[in-house]
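ESCALATION

Customer reports they have been waiting on this structure for their group meeting. Please prioritize. Original submission:
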Amino acid sequence: MIDAATRAFLEAYFRRVAVGERVELLALAILQTHVHLLVKIAARVDLPRLVQLMKGGSSYSASRLPENTLGLRWAREYSATTVGPKQIDTVVRYLERQKEHHPGEGITH
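Update from on-call: job pushed to the front of the queue and completed.
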């Protein structure tokens, strides 16, 4: 489960990884049980490696935070879907409404 402190950590962590990997983080939705990311990547980016950095790296780092008593574990699976430039605004709006799509999974601050 992702609580408010872990959510804040994840948001900063994902942004740092995106900068370091030269990908553009366009939108982010973090719920109690899962995360949605919309990233713009170049063809040269190794997507499985990027996912490993995001998931594995965040799990390792978050689980060592003193205020994180639950740890952070991700499912092995992930889903990646490509979208074209004309679909970006629609996907951003969809991510902004994740609390509506998953009632009870929003994170209170």
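Sent to customer with the following note: The domain at 4-101 is CATH 3.30.70.1290 (Alpha-Beta Plaits).
Escalation resolved.
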